[in-house]
Design a protein that fits this description.
Length: about 270
């Protein structure tokens, strides 16, 4: 399995991905918006795009579908429940469905509602010489979680973080739909000022553009992403002092929802 990350160079800081079979050169494009950039990268790599996959229906993840399909004749894959809103979907998917690319690539759909009610992540198991990979759309960002302001539900987002995301292997590479890393690290440090991992990463990434951002693993996320640090005493105490949670010993869901709510206004 070969992966190319493509920076959309837009205000929304979108990332697109090409996933290709190294034997056949057949490729799948994840969430194309900047279609020319996606098509150009495929041309440079010598790959032929046979499928488009949308993690969810938001326009910044589907806006390049038509141009990619016009240029390549690709099939369009998306959550069955989002297909009508996306338009042009040729294969409706559900959680646990398998997407194949060429002869060698197999990806599993993970049902991850929350940012929207119909959101899928794509997951590639690890192999001998390759760590697992999670194409996490707008569910999980580096050091953050998707907002729920445009058709979502924070309770569902919590459930998606608990299962399946928390169950994935620590060495899973996280490949999100946007580069929000530096801004999200600011929120982590606001909530958890003594988080040395977050501070070091913020310093390392401050001057990098979206194109150059590092790819993090879930093990790293668990150190710097407050939405994966729901037991952190510093985070809980900070929320209590801010009046964002009522009880002294809140459960993980209460902490997650309070953080999601605070992040909307931060
Ligand atoms: Zn979105
Ligand atoms: Zn988005």
């Amino acid at each position: 399995m070969l992966i190319e990350r493509i920076w959309a160079a837009n205000e929304g800081r979108n990332y697109h991905y090409l996933i290709a079979c190294e034997e056949t050169g057949e490729a799948l494009a994840v969430d194309p918006l900047n279609a020319p950039a996606v098509l150009e990268r495929a041309r440079i790599k010598g790959w032929s795009i046979r499928q488009v996959f949308n993690t969810h229906e938001h326009r910044d993840h589907t806006g390049g579908n038509a141009a990619v399909v016009a240029a390549t004749g690709a099939q369009v894959l998306a959550h069955a429940a989002a297909a009508a809103r996306i338009g042009g979907v040729t294969r409706g998917l559900n959680g646990s469905d398998v997407v194949r690319i060429g002869r060698t690539v197999q990806l599993r759909c993970l049902d991850t509602p929350g940012h929207t009610r119909a959101h899928l992540c794509l997951y590639a198991e690890g192999a001998d010489n390759r760590a697992p990979a999670l194409f996490s759309g707008d569910t999980l960002f580096n050091a953050g979680a998707g907002n729920c302001l445009h058709g979502g539900d924070p309770q569902l987002l919590f459930d998606s973080f608990a299962d399946p995301l928390a169950r994935l292997p620590a060495d899973t590479r996280v490949l999100p739909g946007h580069d929000y890393l530096v801004r999200n690290l600011g929120f982590t440090l606001d909530r958890e000022p003594d988080n040395a991992s977050a501070r070091a990463l913020a310093q390392r990434c401050a001057a990098l553009g979206g194109e150059a951002m590092p790819t993090l693993t879930l093990a790293e996320e668990r150190k710097i992403n407050v939405f994966m640090r729901l037991q952190s005493p510093a985070i809980i105490e900070g929320l209590r002092r801010a009046g964002a949670i009522a009880r002294d010993n809140p459960g993980p869901k209460e902490v997650f929802l309070a953080l999601r709510e605070l992040r909307n206004r931060w």
